[in-house]
Task: inverse folding
């Protein structure tokens, strides 16, 4: 199963309709998408507008690969579960987000080699064609790095000492 | 007089999606705290064993929805009376930090890993109310804050 997700906040029809077309042209019946609050009615893929956080995680667990916007929820969950992820960032110019921070996020993810990033619909279709060959990312631990955990623990210990 | 050991009450707040997933990654740091969580989605099964409160989502562009969200957060803050409020964003977390300050809670803001070029609006505003104001990017840290102290990844 390929799991497609555009996050919980905004629709991202450019991504969903491209994946839907692709699934139709390739006769794929194993694509499941979470499409957000969208008016789009996909023809070739299974879809639902939203899902609970644990349902979302279960879909990533069950997926061979994840396709999504460049949202942290999608990327971090794929990394935690060691799933390859193909990302197309939202663009403010198309009204897909309030700003272009997803471009920066995906540039960084690409540089670190933790996500495959495509910029437009044509590249997304190419990426989908080779999705079976996408390299499985290395699983990351379930928790933040030690520096951040220690800083928060220290802060909490300080407060505890004063109540 | 012997010091009495008291478990601090901690309220951890995040919008659903990436903010929430980042919040879950710092939970081990909460240690012995008596924890309660706020999310805009029903995520109670992911923090089983802790109190969980769901609030409506809102951003600063829709005034009525924002007010409704702020009121829900306020009810939780008054009920939980936290000593510490932690948030990874976005708007509900900022509201929780501000309200937490009013009842003299100590506050932590961890700006989202997604904000690579600049802090989010709520992240910038949180600078005025967070006792510990963090970015997850070294290049965004400044001597007067936000500080860089590691990241969720």
Result:
């Amino acid at each position: 199963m390929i799991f497609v997700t555009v996050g919980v906040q905004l629709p991202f029809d450019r991504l969903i309709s491209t994946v839907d077309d692709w699934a139709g042209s390739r006769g794929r019946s194993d694509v499941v998408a979470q499409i957000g609050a969208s008016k789009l009615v996909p023809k070739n893929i299974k879809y639902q507008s939203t899902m609970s956080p644990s349902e979302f995680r279960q879909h990533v667990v069950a997926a061979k690969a994840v396709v999504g916007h460049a949202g942290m929820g999608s990327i971090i969950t794929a990394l935690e579960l060691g799933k390859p992820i193909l990302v197309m960032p939202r663009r403010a110019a198309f009204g897909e987000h309030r700003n272009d921070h997803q471009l920066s996020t995906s540039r960084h993810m690409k540089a670190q080699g933790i996500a495959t990033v495509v910029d437009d619909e044509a590249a997304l279709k190419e990426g989908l064609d080779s999705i079976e060959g996408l390299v499985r990312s290395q699983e990351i631990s379930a928790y933040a790095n030690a520096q951040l955990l220690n800083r928060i623990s220290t802060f909490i210990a300080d407060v505890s000492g004063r109540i | 007089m012997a010091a009495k050991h008291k478990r601090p009450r901690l309220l951890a707040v995040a919008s659903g999606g990436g903010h929430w997933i980042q919040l879950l990654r710092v939970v081990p740091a909460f240690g012995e705290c008596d924890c309660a969580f706020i999310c805009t989605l029903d995520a109670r099964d992911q923090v089983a064993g802790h109190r969980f409160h769901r609030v409506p989502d809102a951003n600063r562009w829709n005034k009525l929805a924002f007010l409704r969200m702020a009121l829900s957060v306020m009810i939780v803050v008054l009920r939980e009376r936290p000593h510490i409020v932690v948030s990874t964003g976005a708007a509900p977390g900022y509201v929780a930090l501000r309200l937490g300050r009013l009842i003299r809670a100590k506050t932590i803001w961890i700006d989202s890993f997604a904000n690579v070029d600049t802090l989010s609006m709520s992240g910038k505003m949180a600078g005025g109310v967070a006792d510990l104001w963090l970015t997850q990017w070294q290049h965004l840290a400044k001597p007067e804050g936000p500080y860089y102290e590691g990241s969720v990844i």
Remarks:
- Chain B touches chain A through 47 residues (CB under 8 Å).
- Chain B has one domain: 9-148.
